[in-house]
Amino acid sequence: MMVQNSANVHLAQPADLAFVSRDGYVSQEIILHKIKQGECFVLEVDGQYAGYLRLEFLWSLIPYISLVMILEGYRKRGHSWNLLGFVENYLLERGFTVLYSSSQADEPSPQAWHRHMGFEECGVINGINAGGIGEIFFRKTL
């Protein structure tokens, strides 16, 4: 379900580097490589940066959302549907049929977001995060 609003989603370009790496989890060098590989997506609303999504590929084969970020002022307005819908279509056009993601076990809001977006829980890795916190994995058929 994509919500009608003034959102525009596109593949990230090198000019978007500072925005799609603002979380600081990985280096800008790695993010630039991901941009060149078509693994970063930008959400703009009324011409302003509003969010981004980065993919990884498990075993170089299976798409996995490594990070999705909607800026505070743009949350709960349906923009996640636009961003995720664009990524899903992008993956479908490339022959993928499933998308994975995850959330820390102690983060109920991200878990609720995944379920709301149509993901289903499919497993847990216990103790993988700092402090021994587990990671809950989600799967969505495209």
What is the helical fraction, as a range of percent? 25-40%
The beta-strand count equals 7
CATH topology value of the largest domain: Aminopeptidase
Order of helices and strands: EHHEEEHEHEE
CATH superfamily of the largest domain: Gcn5-related N-acetyltransferase (GNAT)
Count of the domains = 2
| Unreliable stretches covering 5 or more consecutive residues | none
Mean pLDDT: 94
Describe the biggest sheet? 4 strands, antiparallel
CATH class category label of the largest domain: Alpha Beta
Q: What fraction strand?
A: 35-45%
Distance between the termini: 12 Å
| Gyration radius from CA atoms, angstroms | 15 Å
Look at the helices and sheets and give the structural class.
alpha+beta
Q: What coarse outline follows from CA principal-axis ratios? A: globular
CATH architectural name of the largest domain: 3-Layer(aba) Sandwich
Secondary structure tally, helices? 4
Q: How do the strands line up in the largest sheet? A: 1-2-3-4
Describe the structure.
It is a single chain. The protein is of the alpha+beta class. It has two domains: 1-96, Aminopeptidase, CATH 3.40.630.30; 97-142. It is built from four helices and seven strands; from the N terminus they run βααβββαβαββ. It has helices spanning 17-20, 28-36, 79-93, 108-116; strands at residues 7-11, 40-45, 48-58, 62-70, 98-104, 120-125, 135-141. It has a four-stranded antiparallel β-sheet. Strands 5-7-6 form a three-stranded antiparallel β-sheet, covered by helices on one side. The protein is globular and about 40 Å long. The protein starts with 6 loop residues before the first strand and ends with a strand.
